[in-house]
């Protein structure tokens, strides 16, 4: 009994299943308002149904073709029982969306199709919309009717423009076509509608078989069905529609790089009456990050990458510029002595003012720390105009860097930039000697240290003049070029730098470089740097260390402007010790002090050949020989100064400005043979004074 009931159930269930299948296979009407998930559509090509039920016929890739057909044929039999014409009527309502992959993307298009077959294997894409190929286009044996929504204008298929709706019979050469638009019930006018605006568009197609009238109406999804169709045309479909026809959609993309995605969002069809309206709110949604936003994302990624590249490029160029150097082939051999600008830039924290140790006639000096060795360095930035003679100069500088003496500031290397030469020295903890001598904020140096410094500088000069492989003229000996290490030992710096100025500018003129008060008057006549000129400057140096004032001080009364005058007067009074630095408070070794002052006067002798050599000076200082008294007679003839010398032999235009002159100025004269020298301008601190022709 129980078994019989079970069998009955099974039988009933089988009958119901057969009935439901039969209903699906004999479609008179159907509606897909919630997607095509269970529609079992016949898909081919690129067509697919998304998990939300959305039907995609093509994605945005080029040359795609996709078809989707209702699974079973529709019965268009013109049975004798009913009026034959009426039997061909149908009504359909669907929602399409054509979503471009990018702003420039093109179609090709989508079509609603009623065809006698679902086999479109030989059909072409693009303008053939997946319906025909070139040879079959328009052949009456095709038996299809289509309404195309074409988004490209293509000449062979005779479309009217790139945004149109057309009626296709057996081919894509439209029977009739019209620009895409919809009739606005409110405005009572046609409003054009961009088919590939990416938004859902609702379409109504109604064919009245009796009147042989086809109406096609479309509107954006949020607009109710327009009262007037876009297209209303009489058409005889009896030759096209066979007894059983398949209904569905075909779409194809263009041949250009980026195309449109073609979607069907909902569909109803009816053979026996008006197709049910679709509930727009129930339709599956278009992908939010669909074709367009994928491209948008791609574009923004590309844009970001490009932007990043630009930033990196700019930073690279900026860095290149920032650390840009001048480097020539001949410099290869100086590799070890050559510093990269970047290293120096980092060492000096970008040449910050905080790192500034001082500035003189040759340029600014910055303190730095080499990151790789923690070594303290001083970087001198020397500006120079021309590249002329740079090779020679660098070679000299580098060879000077090989000089080793405990009383010389070591030159570690150099770097070149446009209009800039950077010289790297050992950093001297206590700075330059002049600050100790002339600035009140520094503690007074006692005589022991001063005498040590004098002896140290003398031995350095001896090394430069006599002991090193080549004769090196310093050309700018003065207290501000003597640096003090942590033990207050004096070290001579800046040797050879004056040479740089020899090479700047007019080769016709000779430039003399030195500092007023230290400058050998003889130089203005001959223009030739000599050992004796160094000795003149060394004499001025001796006096300033002993007396604690600058050799040239324009702020003093006339008879005291030049230190050598004061010392000379004291000496003629037989009281040379009166000239010494009052800050020593008499705490000095009289014998040493006298020796230093007298040596200072001897070296200041205007006659170069009467000045002692550095070798003699060292001997006197070390006490290995006594001062030659006879030479002291000549000191009486010492003219006050270089200015006096200059004014005797040359025209001085602007002496009054000498009062503005700070004593650490560098003076440079240009003179050409036979023309004499005129002192044209004297400017303030840190400038190089030029006297031209
Ligand atoms: C489109 O679909 C095809 C396969 O049908 C695939 O190869 C292609 O990568 C897809 N293109 C995009 C843009 O998703
Ligand atoms: C089509 O419809 C006619 C009459 O409406 C019917 O006689 C015929 O069997 C149907 N054909 C199919 C294949 O369903
Ligand atoms: C066009 O299609 C027909 C069948 O539909 C096929 O026989 C023919 O080879 C196709 N022609 C081309 C050029 O693909
Ligand atoms: C139309 O197609 C049929 C069958 O494919 C073919 O025999 C016929 O020649 C074609 N007609 C034209 C005009 O191409
Ligand atoms: C709207 O366009 C259709 C088709 O082009 C045309 O027949 C109709 O007259 C137009 N209606 C208005 C109000 O312009
Ligand atoms: C088709 O459109 C015409 C013109 O608006 C209208 O008169 C006719 O009733 C429409 N036919 C159908 C079946 O909607
Ligand atoms: C439609 O075409 C068929 C077949 O060619 C023909 O028999 C019928 O008379 C046509 N209808 C009208 C209204 O012309
Ligand atoms: C088809 O038309 C008939 C008659 O108007 C109607 O009852 C039925 O709901 C319609 N079906 C669809 C799916 O449109």
TrEMBL record:
Membrane topology, record value: Single-pass type I membrane protein
Binding site for ATP: 381
Top-rank EC class of the record's enzyme: transferase
Transmembrane segments: 298-318
EC number: 2.7.11.1
Pfam families for this protein: Lectin_legB (PF00139), Pkinase (PF00069)
Residue ranges occupied by any Protein kinase domain in the UniProt entry: 351-627
Highest taxon in the source lineage: Eukaryota
Family note: In the N-terminal section; belongs to the leguminous lectin family. In the C-terminal section; belongs to the protein kinase superfamily. Ser/Thr protein kinase family.
Protein name: non-specific serine/threonine protein kinase
Organism of provenance: Hibiscus trionum (Flower of an hour)
């Amino acid at each position: 009994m129980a078994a019989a009931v079970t069998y009955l159930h099974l039988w009933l269930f089988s009958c119901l299943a057969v009935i439901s299948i039969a209903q699906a296979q004999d479609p008179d009407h159907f509606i897909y308002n919630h997607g095509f998930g269970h529609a079992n559509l016949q898909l081919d090509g690129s067509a697919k149904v998304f998990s939300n039920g959305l039907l995609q016929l093509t994605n945005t890739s080029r040359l795609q073709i996709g078809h989707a057909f209702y699974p079973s044929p529709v019965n268009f039999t013109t049975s004798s029982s009913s009026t034959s014409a009426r039997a061909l009527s149908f009504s359909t309502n669907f929602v399409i969306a054509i979503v471009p992959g990018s702003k420039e993307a093109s179609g090709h298009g989508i079509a609603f199709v009623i065809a006698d077959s679902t086999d479109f294997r030989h059909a072409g894409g693009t303008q053939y919309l997946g319906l025909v190929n070139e040879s079959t286009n328009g052949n009456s044996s095709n038996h299809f009717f289509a309404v195309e929504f074409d988004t490209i204008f293509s000449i062979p298929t005779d479309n009217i423009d790139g945004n149109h709706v057309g009626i296709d019979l057996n081919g894509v050469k439209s029977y009739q076509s019209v620009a895409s638009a919809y009739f606005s019930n409110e405005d009572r006018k046609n409003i054009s509608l961009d088919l590939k605006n990416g938004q859902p568009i609702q379409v109504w197609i109604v064919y009245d078989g009796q009147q042989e009238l086809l109406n096609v109406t479309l509107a954006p999804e949020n607009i109710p069905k327009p009262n007037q169709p876009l297209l209303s045309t009489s058409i005889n479909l009896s030759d096209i529609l066979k007894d059983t026809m398949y209904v569905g959609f075909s779409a194809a993309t263009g041949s250009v790089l980026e195309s449109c995605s073609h979607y069907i969002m909902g569909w109803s069809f009816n053979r026996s009456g008006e197709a049910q309206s679709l509930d727009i709110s129930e339709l599956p949604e278009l992908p939010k990050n669909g074709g367009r936003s994928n491209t948008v994302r791609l574009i923004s990624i590309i844009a970001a990458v490009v932007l990043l590249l630009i930033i990196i490029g700019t930073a690279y160029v900026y860095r290149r510029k920032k650390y840009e150097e001048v480097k020539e082939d001949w410099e290869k051999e100086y590799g070890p002595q050559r510093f990269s600008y970047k290293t120096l830039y980092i060492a000096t924290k970008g040449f910050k003012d905080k790192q500034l140790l001082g500035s003189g006639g040759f340029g600014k000096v910055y303190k730095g720390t080499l990151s790789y060795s923690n070594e303290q360095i001083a970087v001198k930035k020397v500006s120079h105009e021309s590249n002329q003679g740079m090779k020679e100069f660098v070679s000299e500088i580098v060879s000077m860097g090989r000089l080793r003496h405990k009383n010389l500031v070591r030159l570690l290397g150099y770097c070149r930039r446009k209009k800039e030469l950077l010289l790297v020295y050992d950093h001297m903890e206590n700075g330059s000697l002049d600050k100790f001598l002339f600035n009140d904020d520094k503690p007074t140096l006692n005589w022991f240290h001063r005498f040590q410094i004098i002896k140290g500088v003398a031995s350095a000069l001896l090394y430069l003049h006599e002991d090193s492989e080549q004769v090196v003229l310093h050309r700018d000996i003065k207290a501000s070029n003597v640096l003090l290490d942590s033990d207050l030992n004096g070290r001579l710096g800046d040797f050879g730098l004056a040479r740089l100025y020899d090479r700047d500018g007019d080769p016709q003129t000779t430039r003399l470089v030195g500092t007023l008060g230290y400058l050998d008057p003889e130089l203005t006549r001959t223009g030739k740097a000599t050992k004796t000129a160094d000795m003149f400057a060394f004499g001025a140096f001796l006096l300033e260390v002993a007396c604690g004032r600058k050799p040239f001080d324009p702020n003093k009364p006339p008879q005291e402007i030049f230190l050598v005058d004061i010392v000379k007067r004291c000496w003629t009074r037989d009281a040379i010790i009166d000239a010494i630095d009052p800050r020593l408070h008499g705490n000095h070794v009289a014998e040493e002090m006298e020796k230093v002052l007298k040596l200072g006067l001897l070296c200041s002798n205007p006659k170069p050949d009467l000045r002692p050599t550095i070798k003699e000076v060292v001997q006197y200082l070390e006490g290995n020989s006594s001062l030659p008294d006879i030479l002291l007679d000549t000191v009486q003839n010492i003219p006050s100064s270089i200015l006096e010398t200059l004014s005797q032999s040359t025209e001085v235009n602007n002496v009054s400005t000498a009062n503005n002159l700070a004593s650490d100025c560098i003076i440079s004269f240009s003179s050409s043979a036979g023309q004499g020298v005129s002192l044209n301008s004297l400017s303030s601190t840190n400038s190089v004074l030029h006297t031209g022709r």
